[in-house]
TrEMBL record:
This is tRNA dimethylallyltransferase. GO terms for cellular component: mitochondrion. It comes from Decorospora gaudefroyi. Keywords: ATP-binding, Cytoplasm, Nucleotide-binding, Transferase, tRNA processing. Belongs to the IPP transferase family.
């Protein structure tokens, strides 16, 4: 019989709107636990509607940690800062004899906390690890990329110029370890005796093991049902005071810039929370001293609702994609698949039977060190979704990184799949067609009047120059 885990952790993941927080409370009440927030937006103080925080009533007197601990005037936490703070909270919870339960939808926070990756294990992180210690990480993405090119050109060439979080992460690894991230990854492979081409299990890089003996519960709902659920959330947000929070953020931004003379970077942190930017124009129209026609206000409101709904659906899709490509492959690499369970919350009328009941039963077996059921046996959804979407995480396969630049469009692709999608796209085909016409027009230069030829060339060149990546 297996021994009960010495330092167990329950991690609850899933897309927004699936009921992760509700399940976490149920598990905590049953097993004397305390909850650690793993959602980047919910780290911010206040703004319960935009950040979709659990209410005091919904907490049911269960202690929650890392909720509302960042002020609007403070910088967004780096992943290293989150890991450092969360590890401290987990130790505190354990010191009271309680069970730590991690819940949240920012899955790169979750994965960084669960796994002993190179960044988090470096001795430098035992120092006072806070965002102020590395002020360059709060600079613009362009500044971060320029610095990364200086210290780690291999990684800088890997990331698209708009992938701020990945650029920031690579630079943070260098700043905290003194080694380029590309070198750290090579050393990881060497310690595990892997081949130069990372041909570990199914060709993927096996990450270091988990920090804790972890049971992972994935709350899932089918896409069509979840999307309808998320679409209906916007009306509830409006009724709960969404517009007042949009006004609060807008007023803070204006006041901050007036006081300091500095512009807030609204491309990250709380400023990219879903519901703020989508409703900002409508809120400004409502608050304007100039009376707006009712039809125009109605049009702005409808547009804001549709944008918020679309952004929320896209976010949920990205969360699921992260789980199925990155997290599941990492868990398989750590031999954790037998402790990873999907709970099908599609039918809310069966929530107790399909989600809470199985989760409590599995958690009880896990904490007692008893045999667990086969994860794929729980439901048809579990059998399907617990298989990774592809057998490797591209982020851990530098041998597949192939930066290509389309000479016609200027588009940058970093994988063979990205390149294939681009060259098959309608935009690329149109650009290729325009380029051929341009070349044919130049060949006709001796057969048509010069003025006509010049006009045709100018039109076609203007069209090709309209592609944002083309120089």
């Amino acid at each position: 019989m297996a021994l009960a885990p010495h330092k167990p952790l329950i991690a609850i993941i899933g897309a927004t709107g699936t009921g992760k927080s509700d399940l976490a409370v149920e598990i905590a009440r049953k097993f004397d636990g305390e909850i650690i927030n793993g959602d980047a937006m919910q780290l911010y103080r206040g703004l319960p509607v935009i950040t979709n925080k659990i209410t005091q009533d919904e907490m049911k007197e269960v202690p929650h940690h890392l909720l509302g601990c960042i002020g609007l005037e403070q910088e967004a936490w780096t992943v290293g800062k989150f890991v450092h703070e969360a590890l401290g909270v987990i130790n505190e919870i354990r010191s009271r004899g309680k069970l730590p339960i991690l819940v949240g939808g920012t899955h790169y926070y979750t994965q960084s906390l669960l796994f002993q990756d190179a960044l988090a294990d470096e001795p430098a992180l035992n120092l006072d690890n806070n965002s102020e210690a590395l002020p360059i990480l709060e600079e613009s993405t362009g500044v971060l990329l320029a610095k990364l090119k200086e210290v780690d050109p291999v990684m800088a060439d890997r990331w698209h110029p708009n992938e701020r979080r990945k650029i920031q992460r690579s630079l943070e690894i260098y700043l905290r370890t003194g080694k380029p991230a590309s070198q750290v990854y090579l050393e990881q492979r060497a310690r595990r005796g892997s081949s130069p081409h990372l041909e570990d299990r199914d060709g993927s890089l096996i990450l270091p093991g988990l920090r804790f003996q972890t049971l992972l519960l994935w709350v899932h709902a089918s896409k069509d049902v979840l999307h309808r659920r998320l679409d209906g959330r916007v009306d509830k947000m409006l009724a709960s005071g969404l517009l007042s929070e949009v006004q609060e953020l807008s007023s803070f931004c204006q006041g901050y810039e007036s006081r300091t003379g500095c512009t807030i970077d609204q491309t990250r942190g709380i400023w990219v929370s879903i519901g703020y930017k989508e409703f900002l124009e409508y809120q400004r129209a409502l608050s304007s001293d100039v009376s707006q026609p009712v039809p125009e206000l109605a049009k702005l409101k409808i547009a804001a609702i549709e944008k918020t709904q679309a952004a929320t659906r896209q976010y949920a899709n990205r969360q699921i994609k992260w789980i199925r490509i990155k997290l599941l492959n990492a868990l398989i690499g750590a031999n954790q698949e037998e402790k990873t369970f999907l709970l099908d919350g599609t039918d809310l009328s069966r929530w107790q039977d399909d989600v809470v009941g199985p989760a409590v039963a599995i958690t009880d077996l896990f904490l007692k060190g008893q045999s667990l059921p086969v994860p794929s046996s729980l439901s048809a959804a579990a059998a399907e979704m617990l298989r990774p979407k592809r057998p490797y995480d591209l982020g851990q396969r530098p041998d597949l990184w192939q930066k290509k630049v389309c000479e016609t469009c200027g588009t940058v692709a970093f994988t063979e799949n990205d390149w294939s999608l681009h060259i098959k796209s309608r935009a690329h085909r149109r650009a290729v067609g325009a380029r051929k016409k341009l070349e044919n027009t130049r060949d006709m230069s001796e057969k048509v009047p010069k003025a006509v030829h010049t006009d045709l060339v100018d039109v076609l060149e203007d069209y090709l120059d309209s592609f944002p990546g083309r120089v």
